[in-house]
Amino acid sequence: MENFSLDKTVKCEENETSLSNVHCQTDYSTTIGHYNTCAVVGNSGVLLGSRCGAEIDSKDYVIRIDIPPVRGYEKDVGRRTSMTVLNLSAPKRLQRFARLKNLTQGVESHLRNIGGTALVTDKRSRRRMMSLARKYHLPFSWYTVKGSLRRGINPIASRIANRKMGGNPTTGLVTVLMATAFCDHPYLYGFFPFQKDAKNTSIPYHYYPGDYMYIKPIKQNEGGRHNMAREYNFFRDLHKQGVLKMHVGPCEEKCTASVAMTTTEVVSCRQEDKDVGLHTTQPSRGLMTFIICAIMLTALCILQAVIWRGSLYTRQVPPYQIGNRSTVSFMVNRKMGVARLRRPSLHVGSLAPNSNSQVPPYQIGNRSTAAFIANRKMGVARLRRPKLHFGSLAPDLAWKFRPEAMAKVRTSTMKLHPDVHLRLYKVGTQYKKDNCNVNRHISDVHCQTDYNTTVSHYNTCAVVGNSGVLLESRCGAEIDSKDYVIRIDIPPVRGYEKDVGRRTSMTVLNLSTPKRLQRSARLKNRTQDVYESRLRNIGGTALVMDKKARHTMMSLAKKYHLPFSLYTVKGSLRRGINPIASKLAKRKMVGNPTTGLVTVLMATTFCDHPHLYGFFPFQKDAKNTPIPYHYYPGDYIKPIKQNDGGHHHMKREYDFFRKLHKQGVLKMHVGSCEDKFITQS
Question: Annotated active-site positions, please?
Answer without folding.
Answer: 648
